[in-house]
Amino acid sequence: MQTSDNNKGAIIISDIYGFKENDLPGYLSRTAKILESAGYKCDIYSSLNLAGIDRTIGKNKCHKLFLEDGLDKSINTLIKKNKKYEIGVGFSIGGAILWKACMRDQAYLSNLICFSSTRLRYESAKIDSHTILFFGQDDFYKPSMDTIDKLSNSYFIFDSQAHDFYHDMEILEGCFNLCKINSI
Would you say residue 2 lies in a domain? Predict the structure, then answer.
């Protein structure tokens, strides 16, 4: 976990690849910088660490363990911290973790931003948090447009982009501009 020293609380959760301690991938460090510049104190978590999964076992095994009980372990880890946030940003599985945490505790987040959180395709009930969803048009596993519309307050689908479009720093920054992050 990484933190900054500002006032408003934000939580950022990685995709299924997680990260090594003190070695944030570009999309996570850029997200933290954007949020910190808007006055947020950021807690950054590896999805794998929240679930107690060793990142060295490989993506397929990590995915399998998340489906078995990793999502529940991640959510329990977050809820046990007994902390509330003004904004949550989740990438892929990280968005699903935050979504499900909000299902258990509607006051967990005021605002949720999800990037490529394809597991939301299995959700049917909207959460209380103001929700913005981002997907690449070419992401085969993104939810149906009906589901995206039902679950979000607003959404953006990027033409000719795949699941990992959020690794492109220019697109990522554009997403936060669309969110009007300074006004949240």
Answer: no
Closest CA to 88 of 65, 61, 62, 117: 117
Q: How far apart are the first and last CA of the chain?
A: 23
Under 8 Å CB-to-CB from 134, ≥6 apart: which residues? 113, 114, 115, 116, 155, 156, 157, 158, 165, 166, 175
pLDDT of residue 1: 36
Two structure tokens written together for 147: 């589901």
Give the Cα separation of 150 and 17 in Å (integer). 28
Residue 141 in this model has a pLDDT that exceeds 60: yes
Cα 41 from Cα 33, distance rounded (Å)? 10
Is the residue at 126 inside a domain? yes
- In terms of Cα–Cα distance, which of 179, 178, 116, 175 is closest to 148? 116
User: What total number of domains does the chain contain?
Assistant: 1
Question: Averaged over 42-68, what is the pLDDT?
Answer: 90
pTM over 0.70: yes
C-alpha 78/C-alpha 164 separation (Å) is 25
